[in-house]
Design goal:
Number of strands: 31
Shape: globular
Oligomer: single chain
Largest sheet: 6 strands, mixed
CATH topology of the largest domain: Immunoglobulin-like
CATH class of the largest domain: Mainly Beta
Number of domains: 3
Radius of gyration: 20 Å
């Protein structure tokens, strides 16, 4: 059994896990038995959410707040097939944004057999957090990295409280091809070529970059609008740079990574509509209601498949996050999703509908779904799901 402890405590004007911000890397492998203790040494309630890992609701315990000076224990088996990039952060309702911005977030990497296909790549974890007015990468603003292989694997993790990051890699101002190999829930079936990828708060993606040609590559947050087409856009900025040295040998791109199960929509037992709403200032709702931890908003049964239409009736993007039960995106505004992948977070643009397929597997229990912009979650954009056996 792997054993570890994470301690949340104040450090000057910041909050840290085990004395660092971001917190220490938690490294796991598929099949591991894990016992993780969390101690709250803050002066406020907190909790530890292992974001994206498909853990039983009783283990994830998103509705449980830990009082100052107390300890909790999470014990679980790392499922097969989940090798990928995850993270941990507080889930104390009403105080999530403050604790995240103060420094409480840390990365999790799960490895498995599929990683052998990429063992020749330089493997880099890049965790984005906000430090005041700047976005930092692994706690450093605009770091410069030196690749050690002709192909570099970038594990991109958006751990900000509310920043949408449209990420691309530029060489001399021009976008260079990327190959997507993993999303929130781990590997996709085969590498997918693209030139940019949107990471909403909470999302992760892993891309491969060719680093055989010497020179500078700039990992860039490209201009993006959270207000939809025609809306005001952000100004692009550099996140990090890769200074590629001479002489790195080429590394072949794998043709196939793994099988990703196709979910049969025809077997769904129910279709639901879930709507983001509210006034967008102090009142954020799901299906017209603000969060109440005593109220069950949705009920489902273990072993069934449901289709959810997540509708954004707001004027800005909202990332939808579901705990414990991974899902697949089927469509955006009726247009089929071209990529089959396991997800736990998906961005829903204003005025749009994202259709997802949710298979209820694992264990029954009570959990939550919410917008992953922390201030929206704190102000009530969260619901309670109860899955029965």
């Amino acid at each position: 059994m792997l054993r570890g402890e994470l301690v949340a405590a104040p450090a000057g004007n910041t909050l840290q896990y085990n004395g660092t911000a971001p917190g220490p890397l938690v490294k796991l492998r598929e099949g591991d038995r894990v016992r993780l203790e969390f101690r709250n040494d803050l002066d406020a309630d907190s909790s530890l959410h292992l974001h994206g890992l498909p853990l039983a609701p009783a283990v994830d315990a998103p509705l449980t707040h830990l009082a100052p000076g107390t300890t909790s224990t999470q014990e679980f088996d790392v499922p097969e097939g989940v090798a990928g990039t995850y993270w941990y952060h507080p889930h104390a309702h009403g105080d999530v944004e403050r604790q995240l911005l103060a420094g409480l977030a840390g990365p999790i990497v799960v490895t498995g057999a599929t990683d052998e296909l990429l063992k020749a790549c330089d493997d880099r974890l890049l965790m984005f957090t906000r430090a005041g007015s700047e976005i930092s990468v692994n706690g450093v603003v605009r770091p410069v990295l030196t690749p050690t292989s002709g192909r570099t694997r970038l594990r991109l993790l958006n751990a900000t409280a509310g920043d949408h990051l449209l990420v691309g890699v530029l060489r001399d101002g021009n976008r260079t091809p990327l190959h997507l190999v993993a999303t929130d829930g781990g590997f996709v079936a085969e590498p997918v070529e693209l030139t940019e990828i949107l990471l909403a708060p909470g999302e992760r993606a892993e891309v491969l970059v060719d680093t055989t040609a010497a020179g500078r590559l700039e990992l860039t947050a490209l201009s993006y609008s959270v207000y939809g087409n025609g809306g005001e856009t952000s100004t692009g900025f550099r996140l990090a740079a890769l200074d590629v040295p001479q002489g790195l040998a080429a590394v072949a791109l794998p043709e196939r990574l793994r099988e990703v199960e196709a979910l049969d929509e025809a077997k769904a037992v129910r279709r639901r509509r879930i709507a983001f709403g509210g006034d967008g200032v102090e009142h954020f709702t799901l299906d017209g209601k603000t969060f109440d931890h005593h109220r069950v908003d949705l009920e489902a049964r273990l072993g069934t498949l449901e289709i959810w239409e997540v509708v954004n009736e707001h004027t800005t993007d909202h990332p939808f996050h579901l705990h414990s039960y991974s899902f697949q995106v089927l469509a955006l505004d009726g247009r089929p999703e071209p990529l089959r992948a396991w997800r736990d977070t998906v961005n829903v643009p204003p005025g749009s509908t994202v259709t997802i397929a949710v298979p209820f597997r694992g264990e029954a229990g009570r959990t939550v779904y919410h917008c992953h912009i922390a201030s929206h979650e704190d102000l009530g954009m969260m619901g309670v799901l109860e899955v029965s056996a």
